[in-house]
Amino acid sequence: MADPSGCCRSCATCLLCLYSCQWITAKKEKRKGLRTTKCDCSWFLFLFCIFLFTLVWLYFAIIILNDFHNFNEFMFKQRKLWLDWSLLLLIATAVLITYSAVLLVLALCLQLCSQPLKLHWLHKTLLILTALVVAAAFTGLGIKWAEEWRSAHISLQATGPFLHIGIVGGMTLLAWPLASFIYHTRNTGLKVFLLLVYCTVMITLYLAPLGITSPCITEENQLPPKPALVGHRGAPMLAPENTLMSLHKAVDCDVQVFETDVMVSADGVPFLMHDEELTRTTNVQAVFPERAALNSTAFNWTELQQLDAGSWFLERRPFPTVQSLSAGDRYQASEQRIPSLEQVLEAAKRSNISIMFDLRPENHNDYQSFVNATLEVILQSGIPLQQVLWLPDGFREQVKQQAPGIQQVYGRKRLQNEKEPLLHVNLPYQDMSSEEIRQYRQDNISVNLYVVNQPWLFSVLWCSGVSSVTTNACQVLKEMKHPIWLLPSSTYVMIWIVVDCTSFLVILWAFLLLK
Description:
This protein is α/β, with parallel strands linked by helices and 515 residues long. The protein is 54% helix and 8% strand.
């Protein structure tokens, strides 16, 4: 075996030790006649694929953070245990990507030093386990959380141009070890195959911007107005959800609409609550342990008023922002109780904020009486009816007749030959494309999309022209004065040409220099 070229013998020995898990000195290496076999090349290719696989999963993990609070709530319903699973996801993903990346760097360095790629069996086993874990994660995502595939597609509108630059840069750097391998191997067929694959990949990458589309590739003067903010259950990162404190915090964030969920107590009092059970957001297990599993509507208003609706927020910390609350906010949060709809309407009227709500549970036998009780409270509250946005589909025609001033919001897209045109729609952000948003905007249909927490997603929807977004992170989106990035088409084309030309010259230099 030739002496290490381009690096000292001790460095080569250390690299071999880490990659092969054997302390092989240069002399022993010569004596053993170690060479990179076809099997070793196959394992290197497998390592490279695993690195790409984990890298793609890391991208997905970052994207789904926007919706991970929903997953935390789902797991609480299943396990009755609150845990921020996003932290575990990121830690596990970071470990897998770091491990595969370190092995890949070691392999590339060994190749540059003309050393054999003898991957140890322990690394091989761990790489196979890594592949199985990531494959299981993708499978679980596809089965239980399929809408996140659409989230990933939307994310490419925000990250596509930058992913292109990053991938071109990474593949350009790969030219150095590839050129070293090609000049040192005697297998002509393998040389031709690797060169063809590499050239095909690079040509595809150079032309990739032709297929990249984003609403943020536009001129500054064509940028639509900033979407209005709708507080998802108020400001749940700053206060216990669906409480008066949460409403007031939402008002401080310049939120225009307070989005909430209404239920009706056993004695006919509409109140704010999202879950069918009270266990997640109150201390019902301590006050009424025998009845904790009952539906929220099984409790009368006197019983509901005995429950603490704020301490859980401080104990479970559903969002990292809870840790930074002031002492005054912590005390106020601990004093929160379940508010009635009447109290919330009064607060909304004083704050001049609209209220949009669902009426739950939709499959209840007494749902019509729930609608009647809710309508009665709204009409008696004195709030201007245009400040009330009605989401429930059940008995909608009755609501239109009794309170025609209430704004009707539909949780569906418009239909062909619709008798009565829709004026407001409320949909998951995955359900509308940028083209549909633009079309609805041209037709003067107000589009609200939920739940939007990450600035990258808010930026894409802003550039698309959405009317408003429902968010948990009103304090973050409030501070955004501009989308994260906005590129005129001419500037984007210029960047594309510069990146591709620079990459081509670097690759050419690598092959000429190492010849």
